[in-house]
């Protein structure tokens, strides 16, 4: 598949790298076609890796991943353009973290709304699926590194076929079907984003080792 | 220990029952001394169980547990009175769930504040510890029933000795030390309360079986 990864941060680079590794063609999108992080990534990631503007990337991609900071995601997607997003699956892995008052950040959108829903309203013809925002990038693409993969990835979205496609990508990353938890419609993204404050406190107390959660049922 | 449990709902009754079972004396507090749920509970729970007003219970208790709906907790604690809470450990297991717009509820306080912090500000001489709000009542008092106890309870508070006392109570409930995760100061309660929207979505998709989360680390 041809995939656009919007964002050149650790999440964008890690996802783009893994997608190329498992056989997809990736265009990493950023503000300018000469963005250093993106061109460096593309030149090191082989023939299926390219760099371009947000617009170039979204135009190329059959599927688009938003891996930008949540506070700029709407601007980035506007630059990608409604036309390039229309009808496509848009995986939103971003978190609306507001760092303006220091660390730990609060959320710029929460409770009765979510970043994912905001994006869906702004781009109604895109098929937005919230996924992978609940964990660090290295865990997203390599679930096996924690407890042999015995932990969970959540997913929310209004389009069942879009979620099937996303579940397929997660499987390519190593997620086993029983650990991919479809939480239902896109407004379930509120919970997935509001998990971040607890994630941050666990991170702050246990130090810099990767972690995730597993739902334990009775 | 003499413990006040404020609230006659499922969380209050379950906690009160377990506390009596492990040897504590419990006064269940409610709006009136003749509250049916409280007097019924007390008459069935043996000689160490009593019922009374919020004020009676808090006066009796050396430790106080807030197990009331989060939206009424401040009123309940005001009825218990500042004087009866002063210097005491106050375990806040409540969640600020706002059901006014239907199900699933949103939170009435979140993001840059929490119910626990609101309570601490209103009763500055109490030693507020947030705990156990992240799971169903039957899991709180019987962690072994899920995966042999291999899942986690979080805790937040500004007073280290108060948290030690709470950890001791959790141990009496069956929580093993490695599963009691101290997340630091009381503002970590924001994350513990903001977990509820994700909890609710897991609940809505997996049905009415008890569950909790385990932090899986690398």
Q: Which sequence of SSEs, written as H and E, runs from N to C of chain A? A: EHEHEHEHHEEEHEHEHEHHE
CATH class category label of chain A: Alpha Beta
Radius of gyration of chain A from the CA trace? 16 Å
Q: Mind summarizing the main beta sheet of chain A?
A: 8 strands, mixed
| Strands of chain A, total number | 11
β-strand percent of chain A reads: 15-25%
Percent helix of chain A = 25-40%
Oligomer: homodimer
Biggest sheet of chain A, strands in spatial order? 3-2-1-4-5-8-9-10
Low-confidence stretches of chain A: none
Q: Give me the number of helical elements of chain A.
A: 10
Of all chain pairs, the largest interface belongs to: A-B, 44 and 44 residues
Please characterize this protein's 3D structure:
The structure is a homodimer of 218-residue chains. Chain A is an alpha/beta fold and 218 residues long. Chain A has a single domain, classed as Rossmann fold (3-Layer(aba) Sandwich), CATH 3.40.50. Helix content of chain A is 38%, strand content 22%. Chain A has an eight-stranded mixed β-sheet with strand order 3-2-1-4-5-8-9-10, with helices on both faces. Chain A has a two-stranded antiparallel sheet with strand order 6-7. In chain A, β6 (97-98) and β7 (106-107) form a beta hairpin. The longest helix of chain A is centred in the C-terminal third of the chain and has 14 residues, at 160-173. Chain A is globular. β11 of chain A pairs antiparallel with β11 of chain B, so a sheet runs across the interface.
């Amino acid at each position: 598949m041809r995939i656009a990864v919007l964002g050149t941060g650790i999440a964008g680079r890690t996802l783009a790298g893994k997608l190329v590794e498992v056989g997809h063609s990736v265009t990493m999108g950023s503000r300018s076609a000469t963005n250093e992080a993106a061109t460096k990534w593309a030149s090191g990631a082989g023939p299926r890796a390219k760099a371009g503007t947000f617009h170039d990337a979204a135009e190329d991609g059959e599927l688009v991943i938003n891996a930008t900071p949540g506070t700029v995601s709407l601007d980035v997607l506007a630059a990608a353009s409604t036309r390039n997003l229309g009808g496509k699956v848009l995986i939103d892995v971003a978190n609306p973290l507001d760092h303006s008052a220091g660390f730990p950040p609060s959320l710029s959108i929460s409770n009765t709304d979510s970043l994912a829903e905001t994006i869906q309203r702004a781009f109604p013809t895109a098929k937005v699926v919230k996924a992978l925002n609940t964990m660090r990038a290295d865990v997203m693409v390599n679930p096996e590194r924690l407890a042999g993969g015995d932990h969970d990835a959540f997913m929310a979205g209004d389009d069942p076929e879009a979620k099937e496609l996303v579940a397929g990508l997660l499987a390519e990353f190593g997620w086993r079907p029983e650990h991919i938890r479809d939480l239902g419609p896109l407004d379930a993204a509120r919970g997935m984003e509001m998990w971040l404050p607890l994630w941050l406190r666990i991170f702050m107390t246990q130090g810099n080792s990767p972690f995730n959660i597993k739902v334990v049922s009775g």
